[in-house]
Amino acid sequence: MENSTKVTEFVFVAFAFSHRVQLCMFFIFFIIYVLLLSGNVLIMMTIRTDPRLHCPMYFFLCKLSFIDLCYSTVTVPKMLSDFLYDRKTISFHGCITQLYFFHFFACAECFLFTAMGYDRYVAICKPLHYSTIMNTKLCLWMVAATWAIGFVHSNIQTSLTMGLPFCGPNEIDSFFCDIPPLIRLACTDTTMIEAMIVANSGFVSLGCFLAVLISYIGIGSTILKIHTSKGRQKAFSTCVSHLTVVTFFFGPCVFIYMRPSTTFKADRVVTVFYTVIAPMLNPVIYTLRNEEVKTSMKKIWGKSRLCNGNTRKHCANVSSKPQLPANSNLT
């Protein structure tokens, strides 16, 4: 690969606008990124602080917020810095590194969504056995499996891409290094590599989406059997947030990776949506649709303001009120 590759850097051309437009886009995406960081950090701090949220559902939500932070940080800071320059470049090894970690966190998020779907399925379809099935050991194993599968997936994708020769041109029609726009620059026949990459990505994205879909088919059939409208509404409200986030994530992924590496005009918009907008919307969706999270946020941050305005002794008394968490070993 080193003998056949002559390209030492790549140039991003997706957002090649005038300097004034690029400054406007910098401030827009900077605000989005700050909201993304603050929203996900707020969810993680709330779940870690409130013992009543130490259960499998919020355990997975905390891990999702952490992955969203990592997943977006792989691409967004580089994009923001590129808005300040006319020529947007990245070294060959920097490009491969960005590609590796992007697919690592994206694959981990795919399987984490699957784990969250299974958690909701057990909670609604088998409520009497929920605490037995979704125990601490299983939750930890499921999270560990998401990281392990992400590691294997990203290694396969990166190895296939690095095996291609790049001898020019070096302009990537995107704002970060991803496989579809990158393999278009290879100076060799990529038909076989594309098929292998699509098969690998398809197994991850489509497989996880179908697993989540099957879980929600079972959930839907169970909800329809609930006779009381209040019970049906409560069961539905616990799942609609997760289903919305899953749709926002898997829809663009299937559109980008489940087809040959041809270029469409909508690619840039779709890519921005699932790399920047969706991670920002996740904490908003889960917060607005979840009364427990909203209540915990109000109590925790209300208590914090109370402590700032009173004596240390009073704060110690407020924070020492006994609480009995469910599955408190999940933090």
TrEMBL record:
Q: Which residues form the G-protein coupled receptors family 1 profile domain?
A: 39-286
Alphabetically list the UniProt keywords: Cell membrane, G-protein coupled receptor, Membrane, Olfaction, Receptor, Sensory transduction, Transducer, Transmembrane, Transmembrane helix
Q: Indicate the principal place this protein occupies in or around the cell.
A: membrane
Q: Which residues cross the membrane?
A: 20-45, 57-80, 100-118, 138-156, 202-224, 236-257, 269-288
Matching entries from Pfam families are given as:
7tm_4 (PF13853)
Q: Example GO molecular function term?
A: G protein-coupled receptor activity
* One of the record's GO cellular component terms: plasma membrane
What is the membrane topology here? Multi-pass membrane protein
Report the subcellular localization: Cell membrane
Question: Is Glycoprotein there in the keyword field?
Answer: no
Q: Which Gene3D superfamilies match?
A: Rhodopsin 7-helix transmembrane proteins (1.20.1070.10)
UniProt cross-references to SUPFAM superfamilies, sorted A to Z:
Family A G protein-coupled receptor-like
Q: Does the keyword Membrane apply?
A: yes
The entry's family comment says: Belongs to the G-protein coupled receptor 1 family.
**PANTHER family found in the cross-reference section:** OLFACTORY RECEPTOR (PTHR48002)
Q: What is this protein called?
A: G-protein coupled receptors family 1 profile domain-containing protein
